[in-house]
Amino acid sequence: MRPEPGQVLHFSEDPGITRFVPHVAATARQPQPYVWAVDSARCPDYWFPRQCPRARAWATPSTADADRERILGADDRVHAVEYRWLDALRTAKLFAYRLPAARFRPFGEPVPNAWVATEPVEPLGPAEPVGDLLRLHEEAGIQRDPAPQRAAAALTGPRHPGRTGPPG
């Protein structure tokens, strides 16, 4: 599940949203109200049930070889979840909303990690079922069952900006 050109996506477990209104998210680090969305590169970050604790790691041009080997091994991207969340990952009903990218601006530095709008936004159509989350990971070539040492490194290493959700 990726956006088409000119679109960004918002993922939700609620299939009935007809209008997105800017708000301050409970997990926000800034006081401004936004409508949040992601581009194609960041979609895999949201192929999880909303409350699922996860660690995500991927290589960038500045990734040190030692970090790449320790955390990613031969993979380009790794997602780790706690075993107790595997059933929820298999059975989650997740939906994607296609939104007009022109209404959004990049958010995050030095590399944007989301897109935000400061005015209400209506989806371009109804919510679309995302489908099998494990299959999406597989089709994207994302390792979702990393070796235990890589998962531990991703969760506890010196840099783990991909950690989201409540502590496990």
Helix-strand layout with pairing:
Elements: E1 7-12, E2 35-37, E3 54-58, H1 65-72, E4 77-81, H2 86-91, E5 95-100, E6 105-107, E7 114-117, E8 128-129, H3 133-139, H4 148-156
Antiparallel strand pairs: 1-5, 2-7, 3-4, 5-8, 6-7
At a glance:
The chain has helices at 65-72, 86-91, 133-139, 148-156, and strands at 7-12, 35-37, 54-58, 77-81, 95-100, 105-107, 114-117, 128-129.
Helix vs. strand class? alpha+beta
Question: Which band does the percent of strand residues land in?
Answer: 15-25%
Low-confidence segments? 157-168
Instruction: Label the overall shape.
Output: globular
Describe what this molecule looks like in 3D.
Helix content is 18%, strand content 20%. It contains four helices and eight strands; from the N terminus they run E-E-E-H-E-H-E-E-E-E-H-H. Strand 6 and strand 7 (114-117) form a beta hairpin. It is globular, with a radius of gyration of 16 Å.
What brief labels describe this structure?
4 helices; 3-stranded antiparallel beta sheet; 168 residues; globular; disordered C terminus
